[in-house]
Amino acid sequence: MLILGLNMFHADASAAIVQDGEVVFAIAEERLNRIKHYAGFPALAVQACLDAVGAKISDVDHVAVGQDSDANLAKKVQYALANPAKILNFIRLRQRKEGMRDVRSLLAKSLAADSKALRFQEHHLEHHIAHIASAYYCSPWEKAAGFSYDGSGDFVSTMLARCEGNEIEVLERVFLPHSLGSFYTMICEFIGYKKYGDEGKVMGLAPYGRDTYCEQVGKAVALKNGGFELDLSYFMPLGSNQGMQIMDDGTVCLAQHFSGRMKELFGEPTEPYSKIPQRDMDLAYAMQRRFEEVFFHLLNDLHKRVPLEDLAMAGGCALNSVANGKLFRETSFRRTWIQPAAGDEGLAIGAALHTYHSVLKQPRRYVMKNSYLGPEFSDARIEADLKKANLRYAKLEREPLLEAVAGQVASGNVVGWFQGRVEWGPRALGNRSIVAHPGLPDMKDVLNARIKHREWFRPFAPSILEDRQSEYFEHDHPSPFMLHVYKIRPEKREQLCAVNHVDDTGRLQTVTREENPLYYDLIQAFERKTGIPVILNTSFNENEPIVCIPQEAIDCFQRTRMDVLAIGTYLVLKTEN
Ligand SMILES: [Fe+2]
């Protein structure tokens, strides 16, 4: 049985294909069309899914979309009636969404197929149920507490659920305009980070701040039983566009979230790309602090209702790895399973698995053990692309390749590491990564000057052999998808100085031999040379979506001052080219 999952006309459009209950291929459209956070129809991703299983769209039995514009309709209408100025906007948006709901014609058109030949059944699933499904149905658990939170989806920002067997029972919804995601975005915009997805950057700024504005910023979100409420005077009134607009080219544009009250309290907002004043660091600090307080409040409430140790979680805010790292201390949950594509691309998998288990009542049999769900490329294709680029290269066996790359990294060189299948979700996890020495004091500056050009306050992340985690970090819950930040042990901070953030933490990826033998063995080879079982891992890109095909990796290598490219079995040195 084939189920195609879709996130479409929403940020991070994506497609996933589930074959007999197993996710066999999934990819966000941005990796293929190269438009960051693309929010149109994921035509290329759908084609890639079908190619991966050798099927045509007429072979697909079910299509599941992680959006249901009829969900929570009463709440939407109630809000629109209470805010008459928004009614027209609301109707317009709904009409536009109706046009986008004709999945059959959209698929037929994009794949040049005869729509009469399409025999699939169509399913629409509420946004946050799809988020929770993307975590719970990928986890190894038969029951768990389910949690999802983000800016908004189907007029909801937060959902609490009980997950058991084939069912996800919704316990609580927090409706718009109350949204922890919007709270975070509002402050990010105020301090000059106005692009969709900038929130993750500002998380790195927070530890540079001091406790100056915690009280004032804290007042923007009040805790309630089973939820929270925004003080709306800090915010522009919510339009029916839910604070974000999808442009005709599929890019996403954020509307201004902060109101005049923010200016009264904190002065003028900061212009993008200007010098960061201490005030903004302090605001970032207060924002992260309040975010965590509300998050733990919600989780503790959830735990009271679902007193289990296992938490399945997704939604864009679940990418807040700092909060995730602290939840073991602040709540009674002992294990997390967080969907690696916690943002909206994950909806494609959630909707497809929900259809398989909850709608079609098929038994659980799948666990997502790694995120390597995208395309891969043969050596023949890679070699042809290297020749096309006129590069000199050496073809190496597995061991000599690992030795050579480990030696290059140990000597301080920066290596592009392109291997196997593309990662699903926003993190590069050892298949489309740039790797470097984690213990050289100037490595962060070198990477930024030569390739990444990131803001000075953003840390780089460590990949560590999972069996060595507790030697280096103060927590031993694994983090295979780089979704937890833990303190680095004092005696190891110097060894990891290039990945040790200002508050002595690291957003680690724990690597096992079972899930990525080549990457595991690379880190081990590096340890043999340096005594450090850790490698610095940052995504293989330069201000663009992470590279997907060999050609993009080669371009990035040639364009930037990367020293070495290890692509498939081929090694390319800048000094020889
Ligand atoms: Fe979402």
Characteristics of this structure?
alpha/beta, 21% strand, binds fe (ii) ion, 577 residues, 35% helix, 5-stranded mixed beta sheet
Protein model, in words:
It is a single chain. The protein has 577 residues and is of the alpha/beta class. A 9-stranded mixed beta sheet has the order 15-23-22-16-17-21-18-20-19, with helices on both faces. Strands 3-2-1-4-5 form a 5-stranded mixed beta sheet. It is globular and about 70 Å long. The model has no long low-confidence stretch (mean pLDDT 94). It binds fe (ii) ion. The site of fe (ii) ion has 7 residues, from helix 6 and strand 6. Residues 127, 131, 150, 153, 315-316, 344 line the site of fe (ii) ion.
